[in-house]
Model the fold of this input.
Amino acid sequence: MLSPLLPALSPDQLYPASSVYMARTQLQEVRMLGYTNLQLDTATSMLMGLLNGYASVRHEGCAGTEVIELFAAAGITVDEQMQIYSNAAEARRCAEQLVARGHKLFWPYPLPAGFYPESAHLVSPDLYRFLNAKQNLGKLVPQEHLAHQQCLSHAALASFTSPGPVCLKAGGDAATGWGFAVFPCPDQAALEAARSWFAERRESIPCVLVEQWINVAGSWCVGLAISEAETRCFGGAEQVFSSACKQSGSIVDSSQPIPAKVHALAVRIGERVRTLGFRGIAGLDIGIDRQGRPMLFDPNFRIASSTAQLLFHPAAALRSGLPISHSLQITPGGSFADVARKLRGPIESGWFIPTRLFNGEKHPLSNGTHIVTGFVMAADRASAATNTARIRALF
Done:
């Protein structure tokens, strides 16, 4: 049996004690993420094993015994005051009951306006929207750490020309992420395609940001835990891209921590937003340009895809003696019992750590597929790629 896998930070270092994880929102709030109705519920599977002793509202697909047992096999204890729901109305009732008891809700993406009073949220929805709107970066970050940016109306974008590569991003205060509304434009053809995409969505996107293209030597999602008293940096996950601006995974290497200047910039920004009232987890996308300057590209004042990997990596590396972790996500079919059986070997051997699990048998929109997210441990990067392939080959 594996020894316990303890995260680098305790729940009270991540969120105030009265906080509740409540992620179930509506499609209107995540329209710039490309979400489906299924993802509204699978989003409730984040932060398992990181909120022990806290209250949470989770879909039954990520909260059953069959899921908890797989985490336990990895040495991860899941011991929450879990409120389990099967539909949106039940999720809202669970949240309302917790709010009535004095709890504060926190979420990766805003909950529907008008569902809960302003006092019900750990972070004000207005503050969340301000902090995560890319056009407000200049109010949070020193200019020397930002690419040159201009905000164009759709009319102005229609006639915009560029002498060189740029990146187009959705403006406004809608929640964004995953590179869904981000388009690298190295040439005129790419610019025309991006222009067309934004024109088709002009009702949802009030303006478009045109950002100078900057070549980077490396980039990281830097994890921050921002509390009443301080900003803690819990490391950075090196970003892996399948194509420009389209992230496909994260690598954490115990022997290669994030550069000191990246760490310093992230904490500086975290301290700035702490004074504005933000509390909880953030993940800032910061790269190093060819001149060695740290450059911030994306403000993620919310849980990031690499959050759990960063928090569990130190203990997983110490336990396994393997310094590299590489994230992956798969959506296998078949029965969840069969999925669990195939995963047990890698999990119990200590080289695969689950971070998100969702039993699709418990959701009518899953089409018979499940979600398995986690990371493999390896001695080096080549072995990490081999181990991710080994997990995929199981299905």
Observations:
- DSSP finds eleven helices and 16 strands in the chain.
- The mean pLDDT is 94.
- Residues 148-212 form a domain with the Dna Ligase; domain 1 fold (CATH 3.30.1490.20).
- Residues 260-276 form the longest helix (17 residues).
